[in-house]
What we know:
This protein has about 150 residues and is an alpha/beta fold. Helix content is about 20%, strand content about 15%.
Amino acid sequence: MRQDELSPAPGSKKSRKRVGRGDGSGHGTYSGRGCKGQKSRSGHKMRPGFEGGQLPLIKRLPQKRGFINIFRTEYSIVNISKLNIFEPGSEVTPDKLVAARIVKSLRHPIKILADGDINRPLVVKANKFSAAAKAKIEAAGGQAEEVGHAAAAN
């Protein structure tokens, strides 16, 4: 087999549509663009979602674009597996979490989640606990105490 004998598979190559070459070609007169209007002109380009000046669907339905709740409370997340660095029986407060570099700052309230395991009894004080995290802390012989956000910031 030689390189000059190679040919593409039948049906894989299609000749391009040559428009504006007379009515006999089937693509003459309007060249497949219909009559008049913005889309029949050369160089026409409309951005995606443009509806001819009508208020587009994307603007008419704000819920389709997403929604940002400005009253949302953002929490600093701490998984209980990270609490194993503290001494058994010690009290874990938001200040101690910052000192241990588990939480960056006390700007956001702290929520304890149940990812991982805890193998020591601790008294954990935070703003929120997931139900599973509370159960795991208590199963390890510790206590989960909820404190207000103002108390965490002090």
